[in-house]
Structure formats: C-alpha cells, structure tokens
Amino acid sequence: MNASIAINNRSDRRTGPFSLTLLFSNFPQRIIKKGETLMKNNLSKGYIFYLVEGIVKNLSYHAEKGKEVVNGFHTKGELLNLEVWSKNEAIIPTLKGSSTKAIIKIIPIEQFRELVWKNQGLQQLVFTNLSNKISKSQERLQRLLLSKSSQRVKQFLVDYTLEIGQRVGYEHVIKKPFTHEEMGSLSDTSRQTVTTVLNELKAKNLIHFTRRYILIRDLEQLIIEAKKS
DNA sequence: GCATTAACGCACG
DNA sequence: CGTGCGTTAATGC
After folding, report:
1. Which of A35, A66, A101, A117 is most buried when burial is the number of CB atoms within 10 A of its CB?
2. Closest CA to A70 of A49, A99, A90
3. Is the CB of A199 under 7 A from strand C?
4. A61 CA → C11 C1’, Å
5. What residue ranges define each of the domains in chain A, with the CATH number in brackets?
6. Which residue is nearest to nucleotide C6 (CA to C1')?
C-alpha cells in the first residue's frame, strides 16, 4: 500500500531522503507474469524479495487435496520471504504472479542483513512489514474462530477492496480478481460458498461482478454487512 | 441451521 | 473449447 511513502516521510526528518528504489537499484530484478513462479523453493531460501510493482500470490501445496491453496497475496512495497531471516531451512511458500506483471527485486539474505544494519529507513520498512503480517494473520485466525463462512467472505472482500481496489467515483473496482476458488482459500471456505455469497451481494446491489472484475457499489454497506451475524 | 463436497450443465473469455 | 461459475443433491455436525 503506502507503507513506503510513510517510511519516506519519517526518514526524511531524521536521516535525510530515503529511497528504496535507490537502495535496491543495484540488485537484479525479475518480472513475473500471471501464474509464473518466482523461484524454486530450495533456491529462494537464500533471498529476500522486494515487490516493486504488481501483485504476487503466496501459495502452498495441500498434500491431501493434491493442489495448491492460496495463503495470501502481496502488494507493492512489501518484503517477501522474510522468514529466511531467522530460519535457514524454512518451508517457504511458493510465490506466483497474479493478474498483472509483478516487478521484484532479488536481494541475497546476507546483503539484506548488512543493509538493514546500516539503514534506518530499511529498518522502518522491515518492522512495518512484520507488524502488518502479524496483525493480518491474527485477524484471519480470529475470523476463522468467530465468524461464519459468509461473514468471512464478506470481510475478505472488504479487505481485498481496501488493499487493491481502485476508486471510481463513489464505487470501487477490482480488476482481474482472484477466482472464487482462490477467494475461498483466502477466506477459509469453499468455492461454492464464495459463489453464493457474491451472488447474494449482487442481488442486494451492493456489488456487481463478471470474471474480469468486481465492482463494489457500496463499500460502507458491505462493511456493515460483513459485521452482521 | 450451516457448511462442505460431488456432480453436472453451461457459457465466458 | 477449456476452466471457471451457478446450482442442486447428498452428507455431516
């Protein structure tokens, strides 16, 4: 989101101008398209990634079902693979491109550590990233324990809109959205439930959608709806 | 009731 | 023309 902007503002006062683009400019970057994997698991152990642009899916393999499930997604300004900071044999989720092209800086973990020691702005970014990830997973866990599935879908849709939706007048639009199946695993429910909940919301005229986009007509009302029991 | 899975038909992209 | 979606029936808690 605008984490990087917040960082810039804060570090401007104390340590002078801080630009991530500049800081990471000498590291190689990769462009990944929709569905493309960033790096093989055993390789990605050695790196931290910085998402310059686009959206990346975070997937892990569900052995019983024999398929990939979506754990979450990342947006512009996020640091990915931070797990490798503390674990050198972590089970690292696969990172795949989603919707549009994603631009990713590739930073070897040892060089990343050095940069963090020296650079206050980067420290801010790391802490912001970490605390965001922690609250996200806590919220998701709470939701799973306390809400019924239809609420979870609605709440997911709210978060999804706030994170990647674009404002269009009083409405919001999500272009090239996740499939119902993906939204299902993101809100811990089945694909069919997502379909029916979305169609309910469509009938209430709170949203409209096709396979290409989701239009949120009334975000305020959707937020209220997500809290109903 | 609330939710999940299987299954099938259908049509969007 | 494939896979993503809409629906319904069967099953479990």
Report:
1. A101
2. A99
3. yes
4. 27
5. 20-140 (2.60.120.10), 147-227 (1.10.10.10)
6. A195
